[in-house]
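Issue: ligand-bound run for iron/sulfur cluster - logging full I/O for the record.

Environment: standard queue, default settings, no custom constraints.

Inputs:
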Amino acid sequence: MTTKVTFRTDSCKGCGLCVSVCPKHLLAVDKDQINKKGHHPVVMTDQSQCIACAFCATMCPDCIITVEKF
Ligand code: SF4
Ligand code: SF4
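Outputs:
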């Protein structure tokens, strides 16, 4: 299975809720980036390990995350 997680990065508020629920610990708030809203956005650290459970997308209050599997 191939998976793909994408983010509406400019709208992420860096709250970290998605980071906390990923069972594979694949998401991180990127302190080196600042988005258009002035927040550190979340990033994927290792797409190859994602199991497409979509816990992250479900948790995000702002619907920033899309999870796809092929
Ligand atoms: S889909 Fe699941 S495994 Fe993949 S990043 Fe989101 S929470 Fe983590
Ligand atoms: S839960 Fe949503 S808004 Fe919060 S850090 Fe994750 S993607 Fe960004």
